[in-house]
Amino acid sequence: MLSNKDIEDAYSEKIRGFLASNFYVADAEALEDHTSLLDQGIVDSTGVLEVIGFIEETFGIIVEDSELLPENLDSVHGIAQYVIRKKN
């Protein structure tokens, strides 16, 4: 059975790949897990909708309006943790 760390790493890799292929990320490998996607200009308000669509389609969860919070969607780590919480 995979540990939470292994699961988070796998999710983070998927998320990082999505960001690199859909948004301007100079170096996806250098994108740190806690870097703010909004503050760095990687994702804007419209891009958040794309991220939500990716989360719902890739991980099979529904993002509720009440969950549209920076701590859930503003970093690779935040998104991965959010997905883990929703799937458990």
What does this molecule look like?
The chain is mostly helical. The protein has a single domain, classed as Non-ribosomal Peptide Synthetase Peptidyl Carrier Protein, Chain A (Orthogonal Bundle), CATH 1.10.1200.10. Helices cover 57% and strands 0% of the residues. The chain has four helices and no strands. Helix 1 crosses helix 4.
Strand content: under 5%
Q: Approximately how much helix is present in the residues?
A: 55-70%
Instruction: Give, in order, the helices and strands.
Output: HHHH
- Termini separation: 14 Å
Total E-strand runs: 0
**General form:** globular
Q: What's the gyration radius in Å?
A: 12 Å
Helix count, per DSSP?
4
- Within the CATH hierarchy, at the fold level, what is the topology? Non-ribosomal Peptide Synthetase Peptidyl Carrier Protein, Chain A
Roughly what is the average pLDDT, rounded to an integer? 92
| Low-confidence region ranges | none
**By CATH's scheme, which homologous superfamily applies?**
ACP-like
Global structural class: mainly alpha
**For the record, what CATH class applies?**
Mainly Alpha
The overall number of domains is: 1
Q: How many strands, what sense, and barrel or not for the largest sheet?
A: none
Task: Label the CATH architecture.
Answer: Orthogonal Bundle
